[in-house]
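Example A, followed by Example B.
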Amino acid sequence: MNKITMTLQADHLILEALKEDISSEDVTTNSVMKEAVKGEVELICKQDGIIAGLDVFKRVFELLDDTTEVEFYCKDGDEVKNGQLMGKVIGDIRVLLSGERVALNYLQRMSGIATYTHSVAALLEGSKTKLLDTRKTTPNMRIFEKYAVRVGGGYNHRYNLSDGVLLKDNHIGAAGSVTKAVQMAKDYAPFVRKIEVEVENLDMVKEAVEAGADIIMLDNMTTEQMQEAIRIIDGRAETECSGNVTKENISRITSLGVDYVSSGALTHSAPILDISLKNLHAV
């Protein structure tokens, strides 16, 4: 994340996380540290994976005390190993103790997503299909989680509801049909917005193509249905496959030739990467 993004989009979220963890004071730290003492603590990886979120980790301590120094020996996107020393945090020991959990929560969560995304993206290597995330993100964590997907080698689908037109089953139900929904979207949305339609059967595929959809999402279809859908679309729209896509079942999609495959699992099911702050001492 660059400095502008951090300041405009992330700082207020990080502050809210800190306020959640420190509603009035850190009573434990204040019990054992009566005054400022300069200290140092090591950032250690306890599991192999892909690191993501180092700037966010650093920013937690800076927002508590802008004199805190953070040194990193790796960068976002690097493969890290169990036992690896990834950096050090130097500053007021009270700040190191009070910021530890929030900083690690961000770094562990983001690194877990990057690690899982990396493993799924590897299964698509050699194909033309791009791996996308979804809006199935943790509330108030989307900017961090979608960034982690990119670090892991995936791509971002629309960021939020203002970012693009995606006509799902309930939108189509509200409009009355695929054709009506696409036409309404074309009449309302700015012309620079692509119109994507989620379809569940081959009749809907045909209707979406004829209505002029830019992207057709094949949702929860069998392999045979997707093959036939791609034949029907015949390059007249981009194609996306979706619906309970995980690392365990994505292999059936690689040979189909769809443009995109989206997976909510990248953000909602990735386990954290185990990371710790250890060996705190005064300097």
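Example B, a separate protein, is given below in the same form.
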Amino acid sequence: MQNENEEIAILWSEFQSGRLSAIEMGQRILHAAVQSKGAVTPDLDRTRRCGYPEVIYGAGKSPDSIRTVAEALLKANAELLVTRVTAEQVRTLSEMFTHTRWNHIARTLRIGRERTPLAPESIEATASENGFKDNDLPGMVAVVSAGTTDEPVALEALETLAWMGLPTKLIQDIGVAGPYRLMAQVPKLQQMSAIVCVAGMEGALPSVLAGHVRCPVIAVPTSVGYGANFAGLSALLSMLNSCAANIAVVNIDAGFKGGYMAGLIAAKQL
């Protein structure tokens, strides 16, 4: 079977000889990149287009469906990320793949092709060993949460950033009910390339935090709160209406999306 480079070389030769038009060559290349495998179609070209490979959303998928996509992605990538996985899915997938890291609180599973994926704190330690200190570590992202009940969403963001290979700082339980807790962390937060701020209830923390830092703050509302929180809707609207100019907001409980957006920002500084 021909590999992708050989196939593209043949298509280019046919185009140069006039046997293929430019449109036909493009269609053939796209067809080669998109390989349907039954009910799933792995996006094998996403790393080239977007810088990072496809992420598998695990909720509602069978382990076999996840394995099909994972095997295809691992042929071209050293590591992949599966979000919103259950313990039952993880038990089955751990038997299928040798190198896995499961964060049961974040509901994420990272799968390595040749080695077990690094924990977030190990990525920071590796960067420090290479001569960087906290106050000059390029691409550092803080993941901040208002309360301990926001932890699952915050850790989903943290594992996403680790999958992206970025150093992180996790700072939890510094919500606005105790303002001194945030102020104690401000000097550290001012050194970050980007911040993911996770909060439920009224969603006030991102606005307060953003007024102290010069980097983008990706606000993630959570569904934590009492009745008038409307399962995160009030926090979402509070964040969208923030007066702080350096805040961008993602969906309710979307730790992956918050981490990914912050990661793209921070990766530009590497």
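On Example B: The chain has a mean pLDDT of 87.
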